[in-house]
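May I ask you to comment on the folded chain given beneath this request?
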Amino acid sequence: MLYSVAAFGFATIAFGLTRSFWVMFICLALTGLTDTVSMVFRNVIRQMETPDHMRGRMVGVNMVFFMGGPQLGEVEAGLVANLFGAPFSVVTGGIGCVLATLWIAARTPALRHYRRGT
């Protein structure tokens, strides 16, 4: 999961830096692919590791972040794009994604070494 999120960030950075249509096309395809992979892993881990009596609450909390998080990111990206331009906003968003992934990976060894049943 962490690899797919980091790959999403790197593909976003590459998308913001390139001016070639085909490279942009490939970068956007990679962001879609890596986002889907990480979403599947997140959902499987959440469903498998959440106790039955807490699963509904956990899905509710997940929905708050799933629905609210992107709107906050869109506001931030729009403000940065307005001040510094769209490519800068895209590249810094990708850099932020990679740095956040590295920070989370460093802070949560259990996530780095996740195996079902351990």
Notes: The chain has five helices and no strands. The mean pLDDT is 91.
